[in-house]
Amino acid sequence: PMLNSSFIEETNEVILKGSHNIGIAMATAHGLVVPNIKKVQSLSILEITKELA
């Protein structure tokens, strides 16, 4: 599937974005927090977990 893309209906065009960012909802004692991890396509699973710590 095409990830992180946009579809322009008028021109029937698909625009692919250069990078992927993700947010993961986490419940904390202070409420809901959603950290945003940028350029996740270039990170390993271990690097992503370090970003969330």
TrEMBL record:
InterPro entries: 2-oxoacid_DH_actylTfrase, 2-oxoacid_DH_E2_comp, CAT-like_dom_sf. GO terms for cellular component: mitochondrion. It comes from the Eukaryota. Gene3D superfamilies: Chloramphenicol acetyltransferase-like domain. GO terms for molecular function: acetyltransferase activity; lipoic acid binding. Its cofactor is (R)-lipoate. Keywords: Acyltransferase, Transferase. Transmembrane segments: none annotated. Residues 1-52 form the 2-oxoacid dehydrogenase acyltransferase catalytic domain. Pfam families: 2-oxoacid_dh. This is Dihydrolipoyllysine-residue acetyltransferase. It comes from Setaria viridis (Green bristlegrass).
